[in-house]
Each structure stands twice: as C-alpha cells, then as structure tokens.
C-alpha cells in the first residue's frame, strides 16, 4: 500500500474554488509522420491501453481515510477504461497559436475529478499547418515535473514506428487498506505526531535562514547556524542574500481564470551565451525571466526598487531510482535582479546569485518544503491550507512567483507515429505563490517556455512572452556574432 506523503497531500489541500493543482503540458505534433497521416483519439486510446502499466500514476485513484483523519492512500482503479479520460476537440478557423493557448487555458482551469484517476488528455485538432496538439494533465499530488515527464515518456517512441511493449508478467497490485485499518493507522500517527513535529522542526531549524518570511526574522541566521552545528553540518556555507519580498501586481488573491502563452528559444544559442559568460544554461533562463518581468512591470509603473523573489523547484530523487508516483521536490528561494537596468549586469548578478544558492543547497540541502506540511496533523492541514494560502497572499506573500526549468531529451520523439515538434509545460497557480508561473522544458534543441497567469494579475500574458524575446535579443547581442541559421524565440501574440 502507498500513502500520500505530507507534501503530496499538500497539493490536494491547496485546491480551492480558484486553484487547480495539476501539472500539464501541450505537445505540438506533426501527423505527417504517422502511418495514416493523422493522430486520432482511437489511436491514442489504443496506445494508452497498451502502455498504461509503464505509467503507474495513471492507473491509481485516491482512497480517503474516514473523517479525513490522515493522508489519503493510492489504490488501483479497478475497471479503469482510459477512453473515459481522453477527449477530442477541433479549433475554429484559422486555428492559430493564440486560439490553442486560449483553449488549453480553459481546460487547465478545471479541476480533476477525485473519484477517478487524476489525469486527462485532450487531443486538439485544427491547428495551422495541419498540426495537432495534445494537452495532458496529471494532479500534482501524483507527479512532480520529473516524474510527470517520465509518465509522458512511457507513451513516446524514438521512431515513427511504435515500439513493441510487452505486458507486465505479474502486475503489482496497489490496494489501500480497509477503513478500520486506515483509522487504526491514523490514530497511531496522531499519537506520534507531536514527536514527529518536533523532529521536523529540528530539521527545519537548519534551513531557517532559507525559508521565505522566516529567514527575515531577527536571529534567523544565528539559529540556522547553531542548528546545523548540532546536526553535524559543520562546513562553511555561503551567506544567503536578503529574501525580502516586494509588492507587485503578480501577488494577491487569484481568480479561477487562467491565461497561457508559449514560445521556444534555440538551446544552442542559450548554451553559447552561457559559455561566453561562464554561467549555466539555467542562469541564462533566470536572466531572461528577470528581464521579461522587469519590462512588464516597468510598462505598468509597478517596478519595485528591490529584486523580485522566485521559488526555483529542485528535484531531489536519488540517482538511479525511478519513482513515477509522488513528489520528490525541494526548492531554492532566490532574488532576481529585476531592479538592475543593465542587461550585462543582470546576467552577471544572476550568475553570482545562482552559484551562491547552488553552493548553499549542495552544502545544506533544504528539506523544509517537505517538513513544513508535516508540522500540523493531517486533518488540520486539510482544512486550513487553502485559507492560510489566501490570507498569506493578502498580508505577506512569501515569494513573487515560481520559475522552473525541467530538462528533457535532446532527440526527436514520436507519439502515435506523429513527430513531437515541441512540448510546452504548464504548472500551478496558487494565492501564495503568485499569479504568474514560468516553466521551461528543454527538448530536441529547444528551450520551450510556458507562461501561465491569472488574468486578474497579468492581463496580457502574450506581452510577457514578447518581453522574453526582447531579453533573448539583448543577450544574443551581448554574446557577439552567431551563426546565421539560428532563429529567434517563436511567440505569437494574441
């Protein structure tokens, strides 16, 4: 039996009338490679039926504990028919990128039915150039960015000809315990909770200066240093910069509506910029995002005179261990130099800031993201999370936004015989994390950006994507001449 961790359950509890906590992505497909020159719902259903055992998260549903006294369990979805999770629609003419973005934003707004396995796929026909889009979403309690990519990879092939996948010799059943066993386990966990909470508090104390809001408290750095010494972490760690969060239009209560924009940057050009200035690809991504956010805020006379603060998720899965259900995440909280006008200075400051954050994380891996949800009993957390998130967004937001970069394969892949041209990720918006989320996924020579926003906070999400293009132009010019065949970011305004 597999029970949700406190972090997994947190993604369930974060859902509200204005928050849908699933991760998703939009794959753009070229059906010319497919055997029949088309991608159909029937072909997708057949593919899913043959490979469902390779994507465990898709075959499970939640089993709640009576009275909500403990975190739910995963159990096999008996009699699952994948056809019930696959939908098809056609865009109206002309079928451009703006229409696709609007269509997937509407789908992304809708929460998943917790009585079924927590996923859906939507095949979207009618895109210009004869292309097809596939929007897929899975609840964040079941996957994180890495395991979500692994789940999608189970459906993909290296050639237009689908590989032969053998069925499992003896399927491993995942069954939740009965109600009486659940209640007994919940009582046992409740009795032991104070001791567990104290242990979590002790572990969190070592990261106190890296936790949003807590890090600004008087004496936070001294307490964290003392806790690390007690726990045997005696190595010298770099001092973190101030993580004071400025007020921006991005922050505050969000609505249930979503807007989406997307575009691609040549990965080779990003690597060239990174090599020229002695920084990493992810540092370039963070610089691009800082520049785009700065430009958007300046247009609205809303640019703070201090850096924005971003949460950057970090996968913490053990090397060689494939866990395709659940979250194994930590996070780095970093300032973004949105207050710096010079593109070159922004690039250099971002490089220094990210190096400091990475050295700090390597020397003292932050565990507070998974420890914090463990501090309160499961029943209390379930009732209080969405309310606490709402209040925090009004009183004192802990961050301005989330920026995430997920590495992907650098070779062409195929789905139902159709070539995957690009994959644009979509993530979660909550009251506490801000009304805009920027996620990047590398694939087959491109960095694919997906920007998700609440229109109450960011009314023109395509403009933000346009500022990313401008930022890329700036860095390209700074890096000097490039091969003529390199292309710019592809972004289509609404």
From TrEMBL:
Indicate whether Iron appears among the record's keywords: no
**Lineage top rank: taxon:** Bacteria
Name all O-acyltransferase WSD1 C-terminal domain ranges.
326-475
In short, the EC number is: 2.3.1.20
Annotated pathway? Lipid metabolism; Glycerolipid metabolism; triacylglycerol biosynthesis
Per the record, the similarity remark reads: Belongs to the long-chain O-acyltransferase family.
Q: Which UniProt keywords apply?
A: Acyltransferase, Glycerol metabolism, Lipid biosynthesis, Lipid metabolism, Transferase
Q: Provide the organism lineage as a comma list.
A: Bacteria, Bacillati, Actinomycetota, Actinomycetes, Streptosporangiales
Chain ranges of the O-acyltransferase WSD1-like N-terminal domain:
4-285
Q: Reaction(s) catalyzed by this protein?
A: an acyl-CoA + a 1,2-diacyl-sn-glycerol = a triacyl-sn-glycerol + CoA
A single GO molecular-function term is: acyltransferase activity
Q: Which enzyme class?
A: transferase
**Natural source organism:** Streptosporangium brasiliense
Provide the protein name.
Answer: Diacylglycerol O-acyltransferase
């Amino acid at each position: 039996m597999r029970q949700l961790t406190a972090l997994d359950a947190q993604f369930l509890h974060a859902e509200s009338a204005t928050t849908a906590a699933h991760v998703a992505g939009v794959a753009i497909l070229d059906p010319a490679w497919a055997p029949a020159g088309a991608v159909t719902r029937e072909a997708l259903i057949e593919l899913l039926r043959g490979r469902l055992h390779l994507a465990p998260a898709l075959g499970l549903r939640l089993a709640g504990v009576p009275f909500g006294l403990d975190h739910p369990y995963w159990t096999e979805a008996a009699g699952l028919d994948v056809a019930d999770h696959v939908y098809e629609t056609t865009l109206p003419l002309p079928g451009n990128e703006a229409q696709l973005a609007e269509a997937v934003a509407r789908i992304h707004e809708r929460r998943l039915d917790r009585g079924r396995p927590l996923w859906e796929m939507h095949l979207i026909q009618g895109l210009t150039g004869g292309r097809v889009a596939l929007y897929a979403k899975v609840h964040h309690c079941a996957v994180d960015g890495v395991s979500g990519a692994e789940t999608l990879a189970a459906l993909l092939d290296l050639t237009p000809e689908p590989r032969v996948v053998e069925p499992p010799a003896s399927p491993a059943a995942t069954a939740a315990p009965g109600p009486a066993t659940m209640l007994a386990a919940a009582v046992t966990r409740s009795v032991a909770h104070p001791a567990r909470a104290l242990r979590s508090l002790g572990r969190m104390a070592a990261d106190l200066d890296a936790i949003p809001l807590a890090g600004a408290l008087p004496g936070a750095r001294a307490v964290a240093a003392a806790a690390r010494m007690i726990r045997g972490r005696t190595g010298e760690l770099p001092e973190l910069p101030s993580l004071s969060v400025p007020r921006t239009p991005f922050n505050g209560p969000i609505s249930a509506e979503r807007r989406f924009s997307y575009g691609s940057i040549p990965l080779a050009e990003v690597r060239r910029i990174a090599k020229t200035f002695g920084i990493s690809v992810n540092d370039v991504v963070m610089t691009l995002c800082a520049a785009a956010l700065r430009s958007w805020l300046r247009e609205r006379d809303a640019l703070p005179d201090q850096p924005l603060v971003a949460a950057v998720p970090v996968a913490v899965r053990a090397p060689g261990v494939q866990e395709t259900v659940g979250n194994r995440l930590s996070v780095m909280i970093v300032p973004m130099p949105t207050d710096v006008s010079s593109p070159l200075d922004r690039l250099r400051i971002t490089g220094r800031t990210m190096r400091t954050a990475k050295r700090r994380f390597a020397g003292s891996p932050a565990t507070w993201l998974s420890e914090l949800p463990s501090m309160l009993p499961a029943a209390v957390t379930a009732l209080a999370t969405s309310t606490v998130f709402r209040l925090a967004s009004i009183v004192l937001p802990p961050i301005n936004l989330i920026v995430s970069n997920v590495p992907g394969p650098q070779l062409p892949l195929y789905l139902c015989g159709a070539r995957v041209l690009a994959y644009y990720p979509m993530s979660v918006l909550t009251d506490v994390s801000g009304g805009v989320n920027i996620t990047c996924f590398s694939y087959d020579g491109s960095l694919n950006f997906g920007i998700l926003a609440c229109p109450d906070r960011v009314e023109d999400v395509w403009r933000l994507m346009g500022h990313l293009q401008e930022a890329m132009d700036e860095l390209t010019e700074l890096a000097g001449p490039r091969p003529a065949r390199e292309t710019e970011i592809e972004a289509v305004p609404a």
